[in-house]
Amino acid sequence: MDIMIVIAISSYMATVARSAPLPEGSALVEDPQFQEMVQRSRGLVEKILLSIPDTHKSCIHTETLQLNSSENAMFVLMAKKIGIPSAPVLRVVSENVSLQTSLTQMSEGLQLHRALLSSVSERLENKNKVTDLMADIRDLIIQINKMLKMVQKEAVVQPTPTPMALHLLGEYDVQVAAHLTLVQLQAFGQDTVRCLRSLDQSNEEETES
Predict the structure, then answer these.
(1) What are the pLDDT digits (tens) for 75-124?
(2) What is the pLDDT of residue 38?
(3) C-alpha torsion sign, points 58, 60, 61, 66
(4) I need a surface site. Which of 37, 130, 132, 173 has the fewest CB within 10 A?
(5) Which sign, positive or negative, has the C-alpha torsion 21, 27, 33, 37?
């Protein structure tokens, strides 16, 4: 699925996340330790989303590359040429989507974006905010994998990010790669928030009160 298609379904995901009930056997989700990790993960992904605009501004100096521009759809072919993979399409836990599947998709997508940022950062002049962003993504991956461990009842290996082999021929390619990675990460992060919100029992308490 193309990078911009993932972004296009975000509004649909918002409706699904608010309305989809958790499936039967959701005792694990209600576990206080699990809920603590859900809320910690929500805080981390919201921190990531808040830092993306400043990170973009710090390392993207090409004026035509704007974070929330409708023209981002024009870069789909260039994303393929550079070698930027699409993120997994996140789905809220439901009767058709298991908790393990949803958490696995979150973990894989976060690992993908951390690897992309690791690769691009090697070619950026100003990489401080990118490095900070990568650290927050790492912390979020740890939390998601802790939840996966509770689901699977076995340890989840914490992968070491290895830079991806992107085809970056010049400075403009580097700028586009960093730009598209942050655009895609922003969309993926928004979907991650919605998936985590559907697991957060404190939302129900706030609604009832």
Answers:
(1) 999 999 999 999 999 999 888 989 999 999 999 999 999 999 999 999 99
(2) 96
(3) negative
(4) 132
(5) negative
- At residue 156, the pLDDT reads 65
Contact between 197 and 17 under an 8 Å Cβ cutoff? The reply is yes
- Nearest-angstrom CA–CA distance, 182 and 14: 20
Residue type, position 16, single letter: V
- pTM of structure: 0.83
Tokens at 73, concatenated: 């759809």
The DSSP-derived string for the chain is: --HHHHHHTHHHHHHHHHHPPPPS--HHHH-HHHHHHHHHHHHHHHHHHHHHHHHHHHH---TT--TT-GGGGGGHHHHHHHT-PPPP-----SSSS-HHHHHHHHHHHHHHHHHHHHHHHTT-S--HHHHHHHHHHHHHHHHHHHHHHHHHTS----PPP--------SHHHHHHHHHHHHHHHHHHHHHHHHHHHHH-HHHHHHHH-
Residue found under tokens 């859900």: 38
What residue ranges of the chain have pLDDT lower than 70?
A: 1-26, 154-163, 203-209
Nearest 5°: CA angle at 174, between 116 and 192?
A: 35
